[in-house]
Write a structure and sequence with these properties.
The complex is a heterodimer of chains A (about 475) and B (about 250). By secondary structure, chain A is of the alpha/beta class. Chain A contains twelve helices and 19 strands. In chain A, the strands form two sheets. In chain A, strands 1, 2, 4, 6, 7, 9, 11, 12, 14, 16 and 18 form an eleven-stranded mixed β-sheet that branches. An eight-stranded parallel β-sheet of chain A has the order 3-5-8-10-13-15-17-19. Chain A is globular and about 65 Å long. Chain A starts with 5 loop residues before the first helix and ends in a 6-residue tail after the last helix. In chain A, about 50% of the residues are buried. In chain B, α5 runs parallel beside α6. The radius of gyration of chain B is 18 Å and the shape is globular. The chains are: A alpha/beta (about 475), B alpha/beta (about 250). The interface between A and B is medium-sized, with 23 and 31 residues.
Chain lengths: ~475, ~250
């Protein structure tokens, strides 16, 4: 690698500079949260004054708030003083040195998902040089993006390099006062991703956190901000198609999307964090605030999510349809197995004229899992001709799980058209037997039926994601029937 | 190939099969007739291994093996095919996908190589022409929105693709108009072969005008009350099932 380009050197260098390796002792903050901790985080990241101010205001507000109790989920109270808030990337000293040190169960899952060996190492957080293959890949992508004028970097880098953009857009969709978890995130977030697509630019590739190596180690309070300027177009893939090696209990992220006139943002998530064991011990609490603002006329924001992980999921990717003729979409597959709980859905807020929204939600429950769809469609007085179509289907496997639907509809404009369809079905004994009688194994049959059920959502995913999502489903539901 | 001895079976604590015996050899076509509730469909489902049908005594051997000991998918892979009376819809799963998975499961079991998409397409197109089926069938959901006739044709298409050793056709003629019946019958006839046996379960003689059986059995109260050749079906048509039932109880 003596002919390594300066770009690569620079990239690797940067990673280390931000990589919390040299300075690891000092980066460990004792558990607990107070103003001092926030000042420390901000100071370590050399943040401009406006950002520290913003964090402190958020913290002040958070202290007046109470944790929401309305979701249809149950968990032991979280001790917020027991969490260490500089939960920055894990040190490479703690990381496994090779794949041999990684939990074999995890590796088995990677294998089932068909993830190439060197990528498995990255996903498992192995501190080996193998990752450099992907670093050069990432660098190539960076070059190509820069040519198009697209900014795609970590949130911390953006704060240093593009503070004016951060100041202009941060909190403009999810204000720091928004909700308990978003407010906490605003006070203590450590990193995340930033994307800016300039006017008229069609982003030349799908952007994925996956290409940003450090994303695999991002802490529990991450923040993503995507701004698509007039007439631009971007597709962003979030997450990991394999379970992250992450012992954190609470994951409180915030995602903000801004689409200006005629801009389009497609945001796809495949999430498979540790769901806890069969008895509900351990697992991630995924309490995430995701919101898109169709700020400009004819703008469009589309959320597609396939969620199979986490012990508890609480999230409602939403669209604020402010611009006239703007479009919001939400396509979701949420799978819960064993003791998992999910309370998820979306909010479509129609403000502009002729705004349209589509909601397709597919919930699959197995084991003793509880899955709820919670959706709000709100049409404000000015939203003449607003239209919404909601379709909400639940599939139950076995007889110990549950599915619930909480649709809320508030219409303040008589010209609006809002439709809601909902179905609940059990995976049919008849369907299963039909497949068995054709020689197909029970496992394959269940996969086939479940994938058929989710088809409308899967076809919204970028091609390579769709395949992985299908594999993921089969891994998650293994042994759910029979 | 199939030997049923003194089979007793019940559904929901109700005895449906009550001492049924039947032997089927390769190449033979057996028609099982009988009034509603005589146990025809139960026999078909017991052979295929459906849940909810409890065999209380008797035996079924299939190529020398205990059929009742085999899982449904294993029976299928061993060449036992059931054409369903009411084929179920599986939304979102396309026909071609299901059929390819089924064919490859069977081929793998036989120790043959799996077919890739192109090879499969070549096989299926030939069989579809046989069943007068449009190619658009392939991309539709399994039985999703199919008419009654389309569903039955689809069953026979699957049979043609899977090439079973023993096919059990459960009321394949029900709900078909005469044109559809002819297509289905022609399909079945083309699949007759010296190493394949077919059991036709039917309520009406009409089907047997198009598919000529070697044996006709009349079921009554869970057992075979009478066996004959195709002329028995014609007698039945004329005299009704009461005649057999009376004869059986006399």
């Amino acid at each position: 690698m003596s002919t390594r380009s300066p770009d690569v050197e620079e990239f690797i260098g940067k990673e280390y500079q931000h990589g919390f390796v040299t300075d690891i002792e000092a980066d460990t903050v004792p558990p607990g949260l107070d103003e001092k901790v926030i000042r420390l985080i901000s100071g370590k990241k050399k943040e401009p004054a406006f950002l520290l101010d913003w964090r402190l205001r958020a913290f002040e507000h958070w202290q007046t708030m109470r944790e929401p109790r309305w979701p249809h989920v149950h968990y032991e109270p979280i001790d917020y003083q027991a969490i260490s808030y500089f939960s920055a990337p894990k040190s490479k000293d703690d990381a496994p040195k090779s794949l041999d040190e990684v939990d074999p169960k995890l590796l088995e899952t990677y294998e089932k998902l068909g993830i190439p060996l060197h990528e498995r190492a990255i996903l498992a957080g192995v501190a080996v040089d193998a990752v450099f293959d992907s670093v050069s890949v990432a660098t190539t992508f960076k070059g190509k993006l820069a040519e198009a004028g697209v900014i795609f970097c970590s949130f911390s880098e953006a704060v240093q390099d593009h503070p004016e953009l951060i100041e202009a857009y941060l909190g403009s969709v999810v204000p720091y006062t928004d909700n308990f978890f978003a407010t906490l995130n605003s006070a203590v977030f450590t990193d995340g991703s930033f994307v800016y697509v300039p006017k008229g630019v069609r982003c030349p590739m799908e952007l994925s956190t996956y290409f940003r190596i450090n994303a695999a180690n991002t802490g529990q309070f991450e923040r993503t901000l995507i701004v698509a300027d007039e007439g631009s177009h971007v597709s962003y893939l979030e997450g990991c198609t394999a379970p992250m090696r992450d012992e954190n209990q609470l994951h409180a992220a915030v995602v903000e999307l801004v689409a200006m006139d005629g801009a389009e943002i497609k945001y796809s998530t495949v999430q498979n964090w540790y769901p806890g064991d069969e008895n509900g011990v351990g697992g991630i609490y995924n309490f995430v605030t995701k919101r898109g603002d169709c700020r400009g006329d004819r703008s469009k924001i589309s959320w597609t999510q396939v969620e199979t992980g986490s012990a508890i999921t609480w999230k409602y990717p939403s669209c604020i349809l402010r611009g006239a003729d703007s479009v919001g979409e939400f396509y979701s597959v949420a799978v819960t197995n064993n003791m998992q709980q999910a309370d998820t859905g979306t909010k479509m807020i129609h403000i502009g004229r002729n705004t349209r929204s589509t909601i397709v939600s597919k919930g699959i429950s197995a084991g003793r899992a509880q899955s709820s769809y919670r959706g709000l469609v709100k049409v404000l007085p000015g939203a003449h001709g607003a239209r919404n179509h909601t379709q909400c289907d639940s599939l139950l496997m076995g007889d110990r799980c549950g599915a619930h639907t909480f649709p809320y509809v508030e219409v303040k404009n008589p010209s609006a058209k809002v439709e809601h369809e909902a179905t609940t079905s059990k995976i049919g004994e008849d369907q299963l037997f039909y497949c068995l009688q054709r020689g197909i194994s029970e496992e394959d049959a269940v996969n086939m039926i479940v994938n058929g059920f989710c088809k409308e959502v899967f076809r919204e995913l970028p091609m390579e994601f769709a395949v992985e999502a299908q594999n993921l489903l089969s891994v998650s539901l293994e042994g759910a029937v029979g | 190939m199939l030997n049923i001895q003194d089979l007793h079976a019940r559904v929901d604590d109700r005895t449906i099969l009550d001492g049924l015996s039947l032997a089927v050899r390769p190449g033979e076509v057996h028609a099982i007739m009988g009034p509603n509730g005589s146990g025809k469909s139960t026999l078909a489902n017991v052979l295929a291994g459906r849940d909810g049908y409890e065999v209380t005594s008797g035996s079924v051997t299939y190529f020398g093996r205990d059929l009742l000991d085999m899982a449904p998918e294993e029976r299928a892979r061993e060449g036992l095919f059931l054409a369903f009376q009411y084929p179920v819809e599986i939304p979102g799963v396309n026909n071609a996908y299901l059929l390819k998975a089924a064919l490859n499961a069977v081929r793998l079991h036989r120790g043959e190589a799996e077919l890739d998409a192109f090879e499969f397409l070549a096989v299926i197109k030939e069989k579809m022409a046989l069943m007068h089926m449009d190619e658009s069938f392939l991309n539709r959901g399994v039985n999703e929105g199919f008419s009654g006739g389309e569903k039955k044709r689809n069953e026979i298409l699957q049979m043609a693709v899977l090439e079973p050793r023993l096919a059990v056709l459960d009321e394949t003629d029900s709900g078909l108009d005469i044109d559809a019946l002819k297509v289905v019958a022609a399909g079945v006839n083309s699949l007759r072969s010296p190493d394949r046996a077919i059991i036709l379960v039917t309520h009406y003689q009409r089907l047997l005008d198009y598919i000529e059986p070697d044996f006709v059995h009349v079921l009554s109260a869970g057992r075979i009350a009478r066996t004959g050749d195709k002329t028995l079906a014609l007698d039945l048509e004329e005299r009704g099932y009461d005649w057999v039932q009376e004869a059986a109880s006399a």
